[in-house]
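Posting for a labmate who doesn't have an account.
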Amino acid sequence: MHKGRRTDRPKLPPILQNYSDYIYSTYSEATAEGYIYWPLRLHEFLNEKGRSLEKMTFEDLQFYLNELTTRRKRKEIMQSTVKTVAKTLRTFAEWLMDQRIMDSSEFYKIDKYVEKIPGGDIGDDDKQALTKEEISTAYRKLHDLFLSFLLWVGLNFGLRRIEYCNLRIEHIELDHMEGDEPAPRIKIENSKGRRKKTRYIPMFAPQANKWRMWLEYVKSLNLPHDHVFFNPKNPSEIPNKDRVSSWFVKISKITGIHIPSHRPRYTYPTRMWEEDVPLDLIQKVMGHSKLETTIGYLKIHERTFRKKFMESGAKRLFG
C-alpha cells in the first residue's frame, strides 16, 4: 500500500480517503504524504490489535508511540522521528474531533501528551562531536566501501540528511578554477519551501582525490541517475532521508559507536574550531544564516576549551 512515504490513495481505508481530501487541500503533495503515511501505519497497527482507526483513543495512540519509543531505544529510529510521528497523529486526531468522530476531551488528552514528548535526537551524545579515537575506530571497523565513504563525507563536509539525497555528480566541481589556480569545491543545494539556498565548500587536494576515485566508481556502475549516493541493494533507487538514517544506524551497529546521521555534522565544525578556523568561515561552510546556530554546534570538551582560552588573546589582557 505504500512505498517509502508514498501512499496509494484509492486503496486507503474510507476514513483515510476522507482525511486525505482535507490534507491534500491544505498542504503540498510532499508534506501531505507524511500526514497520510503515519495514520496509515497506525491503522495497520490497530487492525492487528482488533481495533479501528475510527474508534481511536488516547490509549491507542499512547500504545503505538510507546512501540516507536522502544525502537528508538534500540537505536533503530531517532527521537526526532518519534516527535514527528506524534505531531502528525495529533493532526489526524484534531481532524477526527472536527468531524465529530472523536470526543474533544479525548483529543485534548492526546494534545497534552504529544506536547510533552521530547524532540531532538536520541540522547545527548547525538549532539556531541565524535572523538579522534571514535573516528579512528569507526574507519577501522567499517569494511564496507559505501558506508565508509558515507561517513567520510559527513565528517569532511558536515552534510544534512537531505543534502546527501540531493548531491549530484555535477555538484562535485573538481575542475573548478579561481583565476589560474585549481580550486576544487563541492556545491551544496538545499531547498526550504520555495527558497533554494546554495553554498560552496572548498576542497583540499586529498579530499578532491578521494572524491575523484568515488566518482569513477559511481560512473562505472552506469546508474540511471546522476546522484552521488544510491541504495547499494538497488542502485537505481535515489535515497530519501529515511534511507540515509538507516545507513547510519547500520554504521552504528557495525562500529559499536552511536553515530546517527547528524552526529558527523556536529563533529565537522567542532574539529575545525579546535584547529582555529574562524567562526565566520565555519558558519559559511555549515550554511547557517545566524552565527548563534553555528556556536550551538560547537561541542567542545572542557579541557579543550580551557586550553584554547588560556592560550588566546585573553592571556595578554589578564595574564
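Reply:
Got it, the C-alpha cells are right above this. The two ends are 69 Å apart (CA to CA).
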